[in-house]
Protein 1
Amino acid sequence: MPQLSPTLGYLFLAFFLLSACAFAFIYSKSSGPVNKNKKMSKKTKSHIYF
């Protein structure tokens, strides 16, 4: 089964990239309004955007 292994790797890589993008989008969307209510909004925003 040498042909199945590369396809599985590409599928896993695509799924990993998709999940990472989705997690980053959800994290940035959910943490956005929360940081606005905090007193140190500028410090937290600089840490979130790396």
Note: Residues 4-48 form one domain.
Protein 2
Amino acid sequence: MIGERLLDTVDQLPRWPELSRTQKAVAVLGAAAAAAVLAAGIVLAVAHDTGSPPAESAPTQSENRGIAACSRGTSQHADLPLMQAALGNLAALPHRANLAEIVTNPASTDDSAVALVCTIPGSDVAALEDIGSALAYNIRSAHAASPSVLRVRDIGDGDNVNTTIETSLSAHTFTAKHGDAGNRAAWRVVASEN
């Protein structure tokens, strides 16, 4: 029934040879306008999905994503508001890292925070610095009472300590404008088991 109505409607439309020059011109312009709108929609959708991050985004936001295996969970000593600030709007940490927890020690002399991150096998100091830079940027941006020193400790799959790096959060902004090399230069290795 619906098919018959559709065929009747299509049969009532004039065929191309039956159209006048003006009707053909209007039809061509209409088809071109429809194609342009469709193409613009596709371009905008693709640009929205793969758009570059804002200039002041975390420095390694577009790097490899995923989650490293981690046997360690968040303890009762974790600073949950600081962890939430550290993750910010990141879908995942760079280099497939997994943030196990961030602990603070306000009684320490340097007002430090330690982020424990699980990493994939083969992660090096540069990867840890990228992970730390993403965390540091978000902490500086979103957490009003940020610690003065941030340490990032690579705990592998959660069972061991591989490398610890640290930085002064007040000495560097950790934005994309510094580039990976500039952000990595703000870190120093304080302990390494490799």
Note: The helical segments are 2-12, 21-50, 80-87, 125-142, 179-184.
Protein 3
Amino acid sequence: MHIIKSLNLLFPLMQVEKQATKKKSSKISIYITLDIIFLILSIIIPYVLVSQNQTGSCLHHIEDSEGSLWIVGRSLGFSTLIWFIISTIYGIRTKKLARAFGSYKKARDFHCLNALVTNIIFIIHVASLLSSEPWGDLIFDGEFNHIPPPLFITKLATGIIFGVVMFFVNMSAFYFRDMKRMKKFGFKNFIRIHYIMLSLSILLGIHIFLINTELLVIYWG
């Protein structure tokens, strides 16, 4: 009789645990689905806006494949900014994600996934601009047809500094997947790095919005 009573008590508990596990799994699925939606929108919307407004200025830059890469590269600059913000927020909210997912490992893996997406978009952004016209001419041949050298150098420097720091901070997410390393480094320090990165986003703002580039070249180029 005692065994039967114990089993009767155990079964409801098992059902509750199963339901809790299902809820946590569904939350992970929701976050991943939202990530996919954000990824698609963050690529398509900037590309459409840049390409549409590009018709009002510097038309010779989009006459061939190199010109098209200029549009792709610039639009992916905005995509990088969007994903940098998303990835940083997820890094800061790792503990809350862990509670939602029911696992620190899953929360860390999710953050790593977003960091990886950010770095991939960033690499394609840089590669596209280096292969494009006029950026290829600006960097490799020094043909400053549309932008004064000091502005171009400032734009390039802010982009490089921020890009390098962002890349290594994002890669640190993979290094600190190991809980022993995370505990040794300190979770609070890990969060502080992400807040510092957010403050450094002012460099990205300067990089994107400098006169005669990105938004300004679209409307007044």
Note: The chain is about 85% helix and 0% strand.
